[in-house]
Amino acid sequence: MAYPDMLSLKGQSALVTGASSGIGRAVAVALAEAGADVAVNYHGSREGAERTVEMIHALGGTAVAIRADVASESDVKALYDTAEQALGPLDIVVSNAGRQKDAAIGDMSLDAWNAVLSTNLTGAFLVGREAILRFRRKGMRPEVSRALGKLIFNSSVHERIPWAFRVNYAASKGGLKLLMESLAQEVSEERIRVNSVAPGAIATEINRAEREKDDGEKAMLALIPYKRIGDPEDIGRASAWLASDASDYVVGQTLFIDGGMTLYPEFRGGG
Ligand code: NAD
After folding, report:
1. For residues 93 and 66, is the Cβ–Cβ distance under 8 A?
2. If I label 243, which of 4, 8, 28, 260 is the partner at 20 to 30 A Cα–Cα?
3. Mean pLDDT of 13-41
């Protein structure tokens, strides 16, 4: 098969969590551009999810918005049931939902710790576990993909780079690294591909306050060798590639998409 044809997701169904905004929306749209039908999960913003669905309809694609809290076991099961009723068995799942609740350690409440861990890590576990169960039930569909299923987590450069004043977030993403790798080790022999994308600084709601501070963007750019803040579409395109047969031999990897942030640019010429 020629390389451009391998990028096609035609005939496949996908679920993207936290797709009412930011990176999740861009991933949902990129998967639809590649031909997949997409279930657009949201938690707070129904309007945001409907906007994502409209963007996919405008491309001539198929999409449906479904509310669920990824930290709730019963919500996650119901999310998959509704997605499969609407689109048929799922071939691709992108566990993207995530949040921050920053505080210095002395001020970090247990609630702030639990809120971030339950969405970013427990949510990834619940969404990932259900993806594996559903892929198994679906069975191979060699006419659309060489893999039984593709599960992609949205991690962060902070699965590698420690982050002061945000220990809850960094711990959740550090945990996600070994969740992804251990899961990949467990299920790869079933032809289930588990991988992560790890974004650097991408312009979305999650970091708007940080970017809009005086010199906020300048401080971010100092950490990025490539000297631009990322767009959600940078992650969308990479996720669509990771979901496609063009990356069929990529298993258990974290793809850093960060303009070089993980190169520790402060060491350039010094250190
Ligand atoms: P965002 O705030 O626009 O998106 C987060 C999404 O997750 C929202 O749609 C929100 O409704 C959803 N969400 C939060 N809690 C949820 C829950 N319990 N159930 C279901 N959905 C829930 O910000 P974003 O930057 O697009 O974040 C998306 C992912 O990207 C997160 O996992 C984040 O950690 C990761 N990330 C972002 C950046 C960045 O620079 N923007 C960098 C690295 C990693």
Report:
1. no
2. 260
3. 98
Q: How far is CA 128 from the centre of its chain?
A: 11
The residue to which tokens 């048929």 are assigned:
88
* Phi and psi torsions of 40, nearest 5°: -100, 100
pLDDT at 271 over 80: no
Is it the case that residue 88 has pLDDT exceeding 80? yes
Q: Which SS3 state, helix, strand or coil, does residue 159 take? A: helix
Q: Is the CB of 27 under 6 A from ligand 1?
A: no
* Residue 103, amino acid: A
The confidence band for 270, taking pLDDT boundaries of 50, 70 and 90, is confident
Interval between CA 116 and ligand 1 midpoint (Å): 11
The pLDDT, as a whole number, for residue 269 is 84
Question: Is ligand 1 within 6 A of the CB of residue 119?
Answer: yes
Question: Would you name the residues annotated as active-site residues?
Answer: 169
Nearest CA to ligand 1 atom 12: 18
Can you read off the two tokens belonging to residue 120? 């970013």
- Atom 8 of ligand 1, nearest CA residue: 18
**Contact by Cβ (8 Å): 108, 169:** no
What phi and psi values does residue 101 have, to the nearest 5 degrees? -145, 85
